[in-house]
Amino acid sequence: MLVSVFDFMRKSGLAESEIKKLCDEAISHRKKRNVLAGTECATTLAVAALTLEAWHRNRRYMRGIEPRAIPLTGPSPSVEALVRAQGISADARAVAGQLKSLGLITRTTAHLYRPSNRMALVSGRDPVIQEYVARSSSTLLATIKHNTSRAGSSSPLIERFAEVPDLPRAKIREFRRFARLQGWAFLRTLNDWLEAKRLRDSTARADRTVRAGVHLYAYVDPLAPKATALAKRRNASRALG
User: Fold this and answer.
1) In angstroms, rounded to a whole number, what is the distance separating the alpha carbons of residues 104 and 93?
2) Nearest CA to 57 among 108, 6, 115, 10?
């Protein structure tokens, strides 16, 4: 992963001395921060997504078509029990507490909680987000590496993008909405398929399963500084003319 990042930085015009300086600064900054330790941090968002999805699927946790309010900890039904049911090696009670602190679940009464959203949406610079960014970058690079170095008998993983260099700025809001709706429909179908194929036997999970999924995101790249400056000069020239 680091080799790929350094190669990208070199191709972007950074000298080796500049790259080393940036690395030293990043390591120094990392030492000063109180980052959440343990393996749970790297998987909290994934566990949260599975938990919220199960909350909307498991009839025991539903009231009609809506997820029912349940206690945070304790035996089933509870958030802690729902986390534990996902079969992932993490402290279920600690993860339940994190769902609360991250705002992924909302208290309805003194002791009951409901999902804030069906999806795990987290904002800010929480350690969970930092681990999510690192893991996402690593997964993308692993997919690209697989597709570019795979054997002839190995099928490629989907890794595509749709892009134009000249979308009118007036269309940015419309693009965001359209991409969000289309992406949600795609992920909804894919998630249904994945959930139906999961191996529920925890005793056989370690040697018979793999982590699999699709990471989808949209982007809007702002005008480069040079392009912005050129546009300002052109506008100024027109005004003077």
Assistant:
1) 15
2) 115
| CA dist list (Å): 112 to 41, 77, 97 | 25, 11, 13
Contacts of 93 (CB under 8 A, 6+ apart): 73, 80
First to last CA, the chain: 52
**Among 84, 81, 90, 119, residue whose Cα is nearest residue 102:** 119
Cα–Cα distance for residue pair 73/84, rounded to 1 Å: 11
Give the pair of three-digit tokens for residue 4. Answer: 């790929």
Name residue 62's beta-bridge partners: 67
pTM for the model stands at 0.58
Q: Torsions phi, psi of 166, nearest 5?
A: -140, 45
Strand partners, 66: 63
Q: What residues does 67 pair with on adjacent strands?
A: 62
Q: Give the strand pairing for 112-115 and 105-107.
A: antiparallel
Euclidean distance between CA atoms 240 and 234, whole angstroms: 10
Strand blocks (E) in the chain: 62-63, 66-67, 70-71, 105-107, 112-115
Q: CA 183 to CA 160: how far, in whole Å?
A: 14
Q: Which two tokens stand for residue 17?
A: 């001395």
Whole-Å CA distances, 14 to 38, 199, 225: 34, 47, 18
Residues in the chain: 241
pLDDT-based confidence at 36, cuts 50/70/90?
A: very low
- The pLDDT tens digits for 212-238 are 888 888 989 875 454 455 555 555 555
For residues 92 and 79, give the distance between their C-alpha atoms in angstroms, rounded to a whole number.
Answer: 8
